[in-house]
Design brief:
Blueprint (H helix, E strand, L loop, with lengths): L1 H39 L24 H14 L3
Helix pairs in contact: 1-2
Length: about 80
């Protein structure tokens, strides 16, 4: 019984982390696109880079994973070639 509970808890933990990572990546891609378009002064959607691993949130970071990814993607888009 303990093994089943441990397995279920571990599975739930991985599923919740995967969902949070997905929200972070969606925000990163959207932010990168906006930052790239603003820097290049174009309306063409770029191909975003591979989503990085989500860093640990600091004191001033947004609470939402999507917003956290968006701000990091936006910064990366502004520094794109």
């Amino acid at each position: 019984m303990k093994k089943i509970l441990i397995c279920l808890f571990t599975l739930f933990l991985f599923i919740s982390n995967a969902y949070a990572y997905g929200e972070f990546c969606n925000g990163f891609k959207a932010g990168y696109s906006v930052g790239y378009k603003q820097k290049k002064n174009t309306n063409i959607n770029p191909i975003p880079p591979i989503c990085p691993i989500q860093p640990i949130k600091g004191f001033g970071d947004p609470a939402s994973d999507y917003e956290h990814g968006y701000t990091l993607g936006y910064q990366k888009g502004l520094t794109a070639w």
